[in-house]
Amino acid sequence: MDYSKIKIPNHVGIILDGNGRWAQERGLTRSEGHQEGFNNLMKLTEHVFKTGVKVLSVYAFSTENFKRSKEEVDFLMNLFENKFAEYAKDLKEKNIRLVFSGGRGKPVKKKIIDIINKCEEITKECTNGIMNICFNYGSHLELVEAFKKMHTDIDNHKFSIDDVNEDMLYHYMFQDLPPIDFLIRTSGELRLSNFMLYQASYAELYFPKTYFPSFDAKEFDKALLEYTSRDRRFGGINYETKNN
Ligand code: FPP
Hints:
It is a single chain. This protein has helices at 19-25, 30-50, 70-93, 110-122, 139-155, 166-171, 217-229; strands spanning 11-15, 55-62, 96-101, 129-137, 182-185, 204-206. It is α/β, with parallel strands linked by helices. The protein has one domain: Decaprenyl diphosphate synthase-like (Undecaprenyl pyrophosphate synthetase). It has a six-stranded parallel sheet with strand order 3-4-2-1-5-6, with helices on both faces. Strand 3, helix 4 (110-122) and strand 4 form a beta-alpha-beta unit. Helix 1 (19-25) packs across helix 2, helix 2 (30-50) packs parallel to helix 3 and helix 3 (70-93) packs parallel to helix 4 (110-122). The structure holds farnesyl diphosphate. Farnesyl diphosphate is lined by residues 16-21, 34, 37-38, 41, 60-61, 65, 79-80, 83-84, 87, 133, 187, 212.
């Protein structure tokens, strides 16, 4: 694709949905679907950053996903335990920083928290882009934690309540990232499921029917074409395209 004619979003969010249905359609187990989803994510990440995207946030596991069957949760936790470090090594070679958004306590095993901290540590100097994995994540939890941290800083006289503004809230999120420009949810489901609600306030939304394991580089380029065609107004008027 000729990327010179394409608008590249600075921050892309992807809700990785449809692993289970992808597997079911092929007579495979849900776990095999998640495994394939992970394999796809590794390949897709490389492509996304090559197009010029600077920040990629993916929803890998929500705070609510712990309600799934023990078998499925155990499989996913083992996958994360075994793959996060490999992923960090791969990203470091590409000069991409790996960060995680989400609660870093129970019910997540200490071993996984240690791996997460290490992944962030080994990639912290990387400058080519930021990969943000939302794990044990929920937007409501993030906002509640942000308000608590902000309250502590006000109590400690770092600033006064009158200084609080909209931009400041970003610094109190799990990671201090820019707003999401383009939010993709694969598999045809039409909801945001508690994913980066503050950061996605003005995101362009895209809901391809493709299940995540099949959402490849070609599908991503198709999504970029769609993004390029959108007229982003942020509540105002785009005078370049307004015709009356
Ligand atoms: C939702 O599909 C997917 C998940 C809950 C897990 C997503 C995780 C990955 C793709 C692996 C990422 C791995 C790493 C190491 C970052 P679903 O199971 O809800 O699918 P369904 O709606 O078709 O059942």
